[in-house]
């Protein structure tokens, strides 16, 4: 008796070949084996994975398949990776992403990594409570994938590759939108960035250049208008901790009240105090995730720093700490701006950007 394994991304059919050409169809089996995330530098806190959706090898694999699956869209042309490109930090270099039929979104695509550390909802306005909730909304958005969840289920049910993988991941070949969301949540939570030069610096493996180290001091230094020589850029006020974000929604002084084009967090909370406030994003991989801000208005880090260095606008909901810098700006000179940018570039994680675990399985 001979055995032939026909493999297609590890999801093929096992066929037993006999002398009389009789075949026995392969039957997928549930596999709850845990997916292990390996940290290179131990500079991030312990992951807090939802207890009702633990990471497993097969769920992560299924989530990755779905992330790169164009059948999630109405016309089978757009997938999650269309707007979240790994080499760009799982973000989009376009100011606004293009969906099916040329539909254009109204906000810049957010980067995807270290999602398990977000405890304050998802999207720029926080309208999705859990990552699994976020996962389904782009599928149904008319400007993005414009597909219905029932239609998506029908598409996936017609493909043995998927019914087998849902069996491996969940113990049943039944496909529904909840399982789709849980698998996508699993994959996105497996995407970790913690091997930047700065992480290796914290782990004692490398040294920063003089310019990078001056930028580090500026980044964590507090603004002080009365002592310009020791005043910092005060970046850590909003981009705190080793994930470089503070789990808040803030108005960072982009516009005056009269210039608001996007109500931001207010759309989710219906609270006027949240008008023009947006999720504070991580600065990890910031050098490769241009353009910047919720509307992608800045193309370079130089423009971003110039904004905070003297172009913060007053409005009814602007953060008071930012408003306090408007009289003098951050007082950064050309060398200090360069140093700050050089430090920000140390947050780029080449391991994450090229990790084969996150690449398309197809």
Q: How many distinct domains?
A: 2
CATH class of the largest domain: Mainly Alpha
Q: Report the C-alpha radius of gyration, rounded.
A: 23 Å
Number of helices: 13
- Percent of residues in helices: 25-40%
What is the CATH topology assignment of the largest domain?
A: Cytochrome Bc1 Complex, Chain D, domain 2
CA(first)-CA(last) distance = 31 Å
Average pLDDT for all residues: 93
CATH superfamily of the largest domain: Cytochrome c-like domain
- Can you tell me the residue ranges where pLDDT is under 50 for at least 5 consecutive residues? 1-19
Which structural class best describes the helix and strand composition?
mainly alpha
CATH architecture of the largest domain: Orthogonal Bundle
Shape designation: globular
**Tally of strands:** 4
Give the topology string: H per helix, E per strand. Answer: EEHHHHHHHHEHEHHHH
Q: Going across the major beta sheet, what is the strand order?
A: 1-2
Largest sheet: 2 strands, antiparallel
Give the strand content.
under 5%
Structure commentary:
The protein is mostly helical. The chain folds into two domains: 27-193, Cytochrome Bc1 Complex, Chain D, domain 2 (Orthogonal Bundle); 209-345, Cytochrome c-like domain (Cytochrome Bc1 Complex, Chain D, domain 2, Orthogonal Bundle). The protein is 31% helix and 4% strand. The chain contains 13 helices and four strands. The chain has a two-stranded antiparallel ribbon. The protein has a two-stranded antiparallel ribbon with strand order 3-4. Strand 1 (2-6) and strand 2 (13-17) form a beta hairpin. Helix 8 (210-220) crosses helix 12 (334-345). The longest helix has 14 residues, at 177-190. The two termini are 31 Å apart. Residues 1-19 have low confidence and may be disordered.
